[in-house]
Amino acid sequence: MNSPDSLTRSSSTGVALIATFTAIAGHEDAAAQLLADYTSAVRSEPGCIQFEPYRDAATPSRFVVFERYEDESAFTDHLNSQVNAIFNHALAPHVAGASELQFLDSLPGGGGHTLPSVHAAGGDE
Q1: Does residue 119 come out as left (phi exceeding 0), alpha (psi in the -120 to 50 range) or beta?
Q2: Residue 96, in any domain of the structure
């Protein structure tokens, strides 16, 4: 997606962010196909931990991607990759404006831990 600003952060859990963009009316399917093709390429990049694309259920023209990288270097390599340049060039005619990048800091106890099973009160055990 687009270049990060000076707020990019790296922590012990690496770099985590949410990227969003909006497709121009009538271009939603083209944007979805480009993103689907791009996903497998990004997932194979060294240092990519997670790359999960979504389409907003309420606003189908809005796309959201959750991304995680091992560290700042892996994220920078992703941004500077030829695959990223090709994707952004191909996507540009289909989107309204630039991608928005929201960088995340993990909370203590976070980082993808599974929650224990929860049983409803009064249920049989």
Answers
A1: beta
A2: yes
